[in-house]
Amino acid sequence: QVQLVESGGGLVQPGGSLSLSCAASGSTFRINNMAWYRQAPGKQRVMVAVITSGGIANYADSVKGRFTISRDNAKNTVYLQMNSLKPEDTAVYYCYATRLYYGTTYWGQGTQVTVSS
Fold first, then answer.
1. Could you give the CA distance from residue 88 to residue 74 in angstroms, rounded to a whole number?
2. What is the DSSP letter of 32?
3. For residue 38, how many other CB atoms are within 10 A of its CB?
4. Under a CB-based contact definition with an 8 Å cutoff, are residues 53 and 63 in contact?
5. Dihedral of CA 30/21/47/53: which sign?
6. φ and ψ at 89, to 5 degrees?
């Protein structure tokens, strides 16, 4: 009932910045938390940032101070601003959303972020 579409991935040099967007469409009523996860080849998918419907954010220690998550509830969109990027940030980044009232979760298709000189 909900589709999540990420955009903004690409290639960036170490120390550079990149901004990701994720737009939710379909049955978006009662979306609660939204989050960004990432997965590098051969590694587990891990959460990097989460934001509540009220705008309260939490971050993984690996990105704290460098990444900022935000959302625009009117547009049903969540953003991830990534600064001071490191090669270790290279991964496929996935958007995630919950509708706890209905007991449902949703994933985007992922967008590739590559940090390399």
1. 33
2. -
3. 23
4. no
5. negative
6. -80, -10
Q: Which amino acid is at 103?
A: G
Q: Which amino acid is at 112?
A: Q
Distance CA 71, CA 12 (A): 23
Q: Residues for the chain: how many in total?
A: 117
- Whether the Cβ atoms of residue 84 and residue 66 lie closer than 8 Å to each other: yes
Per-residue pLDDT of the chain (117 residues; tens, 9 = 90+): 899 999 999 999 999 999 999 999 998 888 999 999 999 999 999 999 999 999 999 999 999 999 999 999 889 999 999 999 999 999 999 999 999 899 999 999 999 999 999
Q: Strands 10-12, 111-115: parallel, antiparallel or unpaired by DSSP?
A: parallel
Strand-pair partners of 3: 25
Query: How far apart are the C-alpha atoms of 42 and 44, rounded to whole Å?
Result: 7
